[in-house]
Specification:
alpha/beta; 43% helix; TIM Barrel; 9 strands; binds zinc ion; six-stranded parallel β-sheet
Length: 390
């Protein structure tokens, strides 16, 4: 055997070994990547539990589809799956679909040159075509949600229209059963052909489009990118087509310039599904008062995140601080929840712990009506207004 053949064989054997053993080591890594902070040990009062069980709870962002876990059953790692969503009384969950994670991802500056999306698809035994294509990784996660719906025996209902959402609320949610899911693309860098790729995603059930994720792309800049530029010509076309299709623009992760540009041309309300506010934690990714006001002035909705970098280190207290700050600034009707469960973050509780937010808001003096709005009614009203009618 020639030297070259031996080296090639060694490389193939190495990757085969990694591929075969990945189911053994992925749970180990996930416990560290999607962490639950063990220093918080909350127990909710009976009063909070009783009130929480009457609420329509909505979470505007979680990324469990990017995980290897079987979401039909309860898992010992990660933040959510169907049983935990039900236990947390979450009636509406937006399922984010990330496709690319930059090597050495950080909050300030990420290059789009080397990404781990394909590697993660390989390690999770996703189909071969997802190893090299971000769009295929997005479509595959969309398919995963549809497969989950089919196997869930009516527990999960994927929502694509405003009519479906209203029906779901009147029937299943009113009877306190099941959870609704909406598909969101986290980062439109995967769209190469415009508008064909966008239309394909629409037909595959995606309804919310995050224009940028952790890096700048050909549509516009990311708050965590290098150039952090504004909306490009292609980006302008995409925004126009998103609005024509009655899809929803999500400005989470957008650079300040991109946010300004989109807000200056958007004719429909926009979403910022998972964020913190600079008024509480002044970092590069959180929104300034001016940005928050600009989103609200377009009828937009802000989902406050649950993780440390977004809101601070004090668990529920920090989350409630950011909610209070944003609702004092904008009015309660613009505020909702965007946990970022399973988004590679550390949170104080998993999806079963939503009651602790309800209790935190009660203790902070929010009225029952206000808590109802923040926990889900605002998200419901926003989505009913902006989703396609049928
Ligand atoms: Zn995100």
């Amino acid at each position: 055997m020639t030297m070259i053949l031996k080296v090639l064989l060694a490389i193939v054997m190495f990757f085969a070994l990694i591929y075969a053993s990945s189911p053994l080591f992925l749970p180990f890594f996930e416990k560290r990547i999607n962490k639950i902070e063990s220093r918080f040990q909350y127990t909710a009062s009976k009063k909070a539990q009783d009130f929480h069980s009457t609420l329509f709870v909505a979470d505007l962002h979680g990324d469990p589809l990017f995980s290897y876990r079987n979401l039909l059953r309860r898992n010992p790692s990660g933040h959510m799956d169907l049983p935990r969503l039900i236990e947390g009384n979450i009636r509406l969950q937006v399922f984010g679909v990330p496709t690319q994670i930059p090597l050495f991802a950080n909050i300030d500056r990420n290059s789009s040159k080397v990404g781990l999306g394909g590697v993660l698809a390989f390690l999770q035994h996703w189909p071969l075509n997802t190893w090299y294509s971000g769009k295929n990784r997005a479509l595959y996660q969309g398919k995963k949600l549809h497969d989950l719906e089919a196997k869930s025996q009516g527990t999960l209902t994927i929502i694509k229209t405003s009519t479906q959402l209203k029906e779901y609320a009147q029937v299943k949610a009113a009877e306190n059963r099941g959870v609704a899911g909406i598909l969101m693309l986290e980062g439109a860098h995967v769209m190469k052909k415009i508008p064909e790729d966008l239309e394909e995603l629409y037909h595959k059930g995606f309804r919310i489009i995050g224009l940028s994720h952790l890096t700048d792309n050909h549509l516009g800049g990311s708050a965590q990118g290098i150039e952090k530029g504004g909306l490009t010509e292609v980006g302008r076309k995409v925004v126009k087509r998103i609005e024509e299709l009655h899809m929803i623009i999500d400005l989470t992760h957008a650079s300040p310039a991109l946010m300004d540009d989109v807000l200056s041309i958007a004719s429909r309300p926009v979403l910022v599904s998972h964020t913190g506010v600079k008024g509480c934690v002044n970092n590069n990714r959180n929104l300034s008062d001016e940005q928050l006001k600009a989103v609200a002035s377009k009828g937009g909705l802000i989902g406050i995140g649950f993780w440390e970098e977004a809101v601070g280190q004090e668990g529920v207290e920090s989350i409630v601080n950011s909610i209070k700050y944003a609702s004092d600034l904008l009015g309660v009707k613009h505020i909702a929840l965007g946990s970022d469960f399973d988004g590679g973050v550390a949170v104080p509780f998993d999806a079963t712990g939503m009651v602790h937010i309800t209790e935190g808001l009660m203790n902070r003096g929010f009225s029952k009506e206000e808590i109802n709005m923040i926990m889900g009614e605002n998200a419901f009203n926003f989505l009913v207004t902006v989703l396609p009618l049928d």
